[in-house]
Design goal:
alpha+beta; Protein Transport Mog1p, Chain A; elongated
Length: 184
């Protein structure tokens, strides 16, 4: 009888220790939830949400076509945006197709081309395309994700690029940045 009491006590103690250890490891190693900060374009025309844990540098230059230009060098991540005023109504899909053809001419060793895909934004029509290319100045392959957004008076082009070794790491972040787009 005494033996059974000791055995039950040690089994209970063992189970309790395992539960405590699992709880501690869960608290220590659980994934941290990303938080975002709102960034406004240089001309005040739109905003997007960017992860607060990334130390980005703003690359603003006078006479630049970019109204937002950020980089996170240690991650090999670049984000820039352009705005084009709509002068008249034109076929949005054709504009995106022509831009893609022109853009790809300047890139080397292109592969994993997605084609042009509709992108779901709440209030605006949008298209995206992505591909991988080699940037000879960096000597690395980059994943490039381009989003075109049409609003009443403008077209916006959001370009997100990252070295391919970090592509999977930033896939959800890129999606969040694109879906957080709001014209002001």
């Amino acid at each position: 009888m005494e033996y059974l009491k000791k055995k039950t006590f040690f089994i209970s103690l063992g189970v309790s220790l395992v539960v405590i250890i699992v709880c501690i490891f869960t608290l220590i190693f659980r994934p941290k939830k990303l938080t975002y900060t709102t960034l406004i374009a240089n001309d005040g025309s739109f905003h997007v949400e960017f992860p607060t844990n990334l130390s980005y540098v703003t690359n603003s230059q006078e006479n630049s076509a970019f109204i937002m230009d950020l980089s996170v060098e240690e991650e090999g991540l670049f984000f820039y945006a352009t705005k084009i005023s709509k002068i008249r109504e034109i076929d949005f899909a054709s504009v995106v197709q022509k831009d893609k053809e022109t853009y790809l001419k300047d890139k080397e060793n292109i592969h994993d081309d997605s084609g042009i895909l509709p992108f779901s934004l709440e209030n605006n029509p949008a298209y995206e395309y992505h591909f991988v290319y080699t940037d000879t100045s960096y000597g690395k392959e980059f994943y490039c994700d381009v989003l075109w957004v049409e609003t009443k008076n403008n077209f916006y082009i959001l370009n997100l690029e990252v070295v391919t070794e970090n592509q999977e790491k930033f896939q959800d972040i890129f999606h969040h940045i694109k879906t957080s787009f709001v014209e002001l």
